[in-house]
Design the sequence.
């Protein structure tokens, strides 16, 4: 039974579902709707007369027949991707859509300004930026590049390029600080309303020692922009990237505390999938951001 063009398209869709572990992830990677992905896979199953994917309300699992088919088509799809990337490099200028994921704080500063500069230099590259403080899955969600300030993937199929180190500060609004005695030692945070994103401990360094303070407060959020706004409103103290609140500190809207102690740093990196032929649009973005970020953040 020879494969038709429709079969080849359906096999491509099926392979992306397997790689993304979901229909929605495959749809995002392919730039189509979830219903199109589901229809293509179902048509392929009818054509072959076998079940390729077991579907439940909670998860997908590949069948033995599906695993055999994926092994046979994955290599061909990889070659097709590389050929497409090589052909794309024939163009005198990088072009195409580049999907980028970044946390809120980085997107606000300095990424927003850098994207304007990037667009001026590479007008034929359309950047689709997804901003979220959750940890994105590059492969499942179809991102070309992600900027990370937390843990990095241990999978060797990913490349991590260090951009710089962001300094952290503990700060509060003048109206909040006016209601409390000046802080002299980290343990005095136990008497304060400490606003948080994750975790319930703040770690400080003084000389060679580490000081761990179990903090608590009335607000825990999953968005750093909301955390900054709550701090500006005088709700409590927060642990924030210095670059995010640089203007607030300069204008006196926020003040740092416990400056004699170091509340840590954040390693900022670019993460992208290991590929033999990286698309030119991704290469120029990675090189551009690496150069610009290293000017914005001093390497730690």
Sequence:
């Amino acid at each position: 039974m020879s494969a038709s063009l429709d079969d080849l398209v359906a096999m491509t869709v099926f392979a992306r579902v397997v790689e993304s572990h979901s229909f929605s992830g495959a749809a995002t990677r392919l730039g189509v709707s979830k219903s199109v992905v589901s229809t293509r896979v179902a048509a392929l199953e009818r054509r072959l007369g076998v079940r390729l994917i077991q579907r439940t309300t909670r998860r997908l699992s590949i069948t033995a027949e599906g695993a055999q088919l994926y092994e046979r088509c994955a290599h061909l799809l990889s070659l097709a991707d590389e050929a497409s990337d090589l052909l794309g490099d024939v163009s005198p200028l990088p072009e195409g859509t580049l999907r980028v994921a970044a946390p809120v704080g980085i997107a606000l500063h300095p990424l927003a300004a850098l994207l304007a500069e990037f667009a001026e230099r590479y007008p034929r590259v359309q950047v689709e930026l997804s901003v979220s403080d959750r940890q994105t899955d590059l492969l499942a969600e179809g991102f070309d590049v992600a900027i990370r300030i937390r843990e990095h993937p241990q999978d060797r199929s990913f490349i991590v390029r260090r951009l710089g180190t962001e300094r952290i500060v503990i700060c509060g609004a003048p109206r909040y600080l006016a209601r409390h005695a000046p802080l002299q030692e980290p343990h005095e945070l136990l008497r304060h309303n400490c606003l948080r994103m994750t975790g319930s401990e703040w770690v400080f360094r003084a000389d060679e020692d580490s000081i761990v303070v179990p903090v608590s407060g009335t607000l825990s959020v999953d968005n750093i922009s909301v955390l900054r706004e709550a701090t500006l409103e005088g709700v409590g103290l927060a642990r924030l990237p210095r670059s995010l609140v640089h203007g607030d500190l300069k204008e006196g809207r926020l003040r740092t505390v416990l400056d004699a102690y170091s509340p840590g740093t954040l390693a900022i990196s670019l993460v992208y999938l290991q590929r033999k032929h990286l698309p030119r649009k991704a290469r120029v973005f990675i090189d551009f951001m690496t150069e610009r970020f290293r000017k914005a953040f001093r390497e730690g």
